[in-house]
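User: Design a sequence. Structure:
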C-alpha cells in the first residue's frame, strides 16, 4: 500500500539557469553604461541617479564599485557586515534578484 495518491494544483516550471544568465547580463550592461556615463558626465544629476562610482584602493587590480544610485541598490552586499549596516539595501537586492529572475523565467517559458 503506497498511501493516498492525488495531484496538487501547483504549476512548477523548470527553466535551467537561463534566467540567472539573463539577469546577470542585464545588470552587467547597466554597470558598464553607468560607469561610462559617470566618467563622461560626472556631476550630472541624472547620471548620479543611475550610479556613482568609487575606485577601490589597495595593491590589487583596479576595481570600481557603486556607492550610490540605482547601481548601488541593485548590487549585492559584499559581506554579512554590510547586510547588518544596511538591511534595506540587502532587501532591495533580494527583491530585485528574485523578481527579475521570475520575470525572465516566465518570459523564457513563453518564448521557448
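Assistant: Done.
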Amino acid at each position: 500500500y503506497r498511501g493516498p495518491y492525488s495531484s496538487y494544483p501547483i504549476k512548477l516550471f523548470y527553466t535551467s539557469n537561463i534566467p540567472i544568465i539573463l539577469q546577470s547580463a542585464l545588470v552587467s550592461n547597466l554597470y558598464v553604461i553607468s560607469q561610462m556615463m559617470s566618467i563622461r558626465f560626472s556631476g550630472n544629476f541624472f547620471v548620479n541617479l543611475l550610479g556613482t562610482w568609487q575606485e577601490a584602493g589597495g595593491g590589487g587590480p583596479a576595481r570600481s564599485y557603486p556607492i550610490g544610485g540605482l547601481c548601488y541598490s541593485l548590487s549585492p552586499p559584499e559581506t554579512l557586515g554590510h547586510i547588518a549596516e544596511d538591511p534595506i539595501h540587502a532587501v532591495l537586492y533580494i527583491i530585485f534578484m528574485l523578481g527579475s529572475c521570475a520575470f525572465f523565467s516566465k518570459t523564457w517559458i513563453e518564448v521557448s
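The CA atoms of residues 55 and 64 lie 4 Å apart. The two ends are 40 Å apart (CA to CA).
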